[in-house]
Design goal:
alpha/beta, 2 domains, nine-stranded mixed sheet, five-stranded parallel sheet, 16 strands, 26% helix, 26% strand, binds flavin-adenine dinucleotide
């Protein structure tokens, strides 16, 4: 086993995800503490290698089956690379691909796996992880003391800036064609998010609407408030499930993780699956007519006034 920390550098159509840089920065800190190297693995996007400048080395593999995310092809390629490199710790993000692969890889390597990590540090030879469990209701402290460990980190947990620093990594281009034949999974198409829709994960101020809005016709009212505030409109899952807003607006366990400075919640009860997606919001303001709604346990400010009155009044005040 080496003391290296290996990171899967995820990309979408060749564009590296922000989370890849977040992981690289943390990998650098841990590898320095253990006297190891940072290795970034890049599958299917050879041109992005130069951007991974915070890594000591990049293992890049190009193959038709790796052009987009194919779980089987990615797993086979990763396992092959990991067997050769034998790092102490492998880091993924809790993206769809990261959650798939972290589980699969940990089984192949017989390595300990900790998911939904929000903090990670070196403790002597071991890694100490803080992870969200029970849908984010509890934080667990986990010591990873085995020879090999795998972590899946919630995006936004570490600053990306540290992962952008650095020099010129050595790039090893590997041919893994011998393990990528006879795949049982073929990706036939990729459904892209609706064109032109906003990225709620980047917003500093978010207005978020829940089932309390009652019907699709009423969405316009909160949209007007969001527009007046210059904020995108996000939503809880029932709003998305009913087709009142697109999936790209959903916050929570099966939606996006957001980290705005201000999160204004209108008619959202505060179910754990929703709170999981906004736990790191700096200031939470909740409007819910039910004083016993769990959302008030996490809100910094709250009101039990009707959301329709609040939205109307606020829009007028902001526009005045
Ligand atoms: C595996 C799994 C994954 C999930 N993933 C997600 C996820 O990603 N995101 C997510 O949001 N949920 C998710 N859920 C669903 C989650 O459990 C809740 O059902 C959901 O968050 C509830 O949404 P809500 O708060 O909008 O609706 P409700 O729980 O129905 O709450 C509506 C609230 O509006 C209030 N209200 C009603 N009228 C008004 C009014 N006029 N003014 C003010 N307040 C009013 C009510 O008092 C109530 O508290 C998931 C569930 C599972 C099992």
């Amino acid at each position: 086993m080496s003391n290296d920390v290996l990171v899967l550098a995820e990309h979408q159509e060749g564009r590296l995800l922000e989370t890849s840089f977040e992981l690289l920065g943390k990998a650098r800190e841990l590898a320095d503490a253990w006297g190891g190297k940072v290795v970034a693995v890049l599958l299917g996007a050879p041109d992005a290698a130069a951007e991974l400048s915070a890594a000591d080395s990049v293992v890049s593999c190009e193959h038709p089956s790796l052009a987009g995310y194919n779980p089987e092809a990615y797993e086979r390629a990763l396992v092959e690379i990991l067997r050769e490199r034998d790092p102490r710790l492998v880091l993924f993000s809790t993206t769809t691909a990261g959650l798939d692969l972290s589980g699969a890889v940990s089984v192949h390597l017989r390595a300990a796996l900790v998911s939904y990590v929000v903090a990670l540090s070196a403790e002597g030879d071991n890694a100490l992880a803080t992870a969200r469990i029970y849908g984010g209701k509890l934080l667990a402290e986990v010591e990873l003391s085995g020879p090999r460990s795998v972590g899946a980190v919630i995006s936004g947990s570490f600053p990306a800036a540290f992962g952008r620093a650095g020099g010129t990594p050595e790039v090893a281009r590997v041919d893994l064609g011998h393990v990528l034949g006879d795949l049982r999974i073929t990706v036939t198409s990729v459904v892209a998010p609706e064109a032109g829709d906003v990225d709620i994960t980047a917003a500093e101020l978010l207005v978020s609407v829940g089932r309390g809005i009652g019907s699709k016709d009423n969405i316009e009212l909160v949209e007007e408030l969001a527009d007046a505030l210059g904020a995108p409109l996000a939503a809880s899952r029932p709003v998305v499930d009913q087709g009142w807003l697109p999936k790209s607006r959903q916050v929570g366990k099966s939606g996006h993780t957001v980290k705005p400075k201000v999160y204004l919640m209108l008619g959202i009860s505060g179910a754990p699956e929703h709170l999981e997606g906004m736990a790191d919001a700096e200031l939470v303001i909740a409007c819910n007519t039910d004083p016993a709604a769990p959302v008030f346990d996490v809100a910094d400010y709250g009101t039990t006034l009707d959301l329709f009155d609040i939205a109307d009044e606020l829009t007028r005040a902001v526009k005045a």
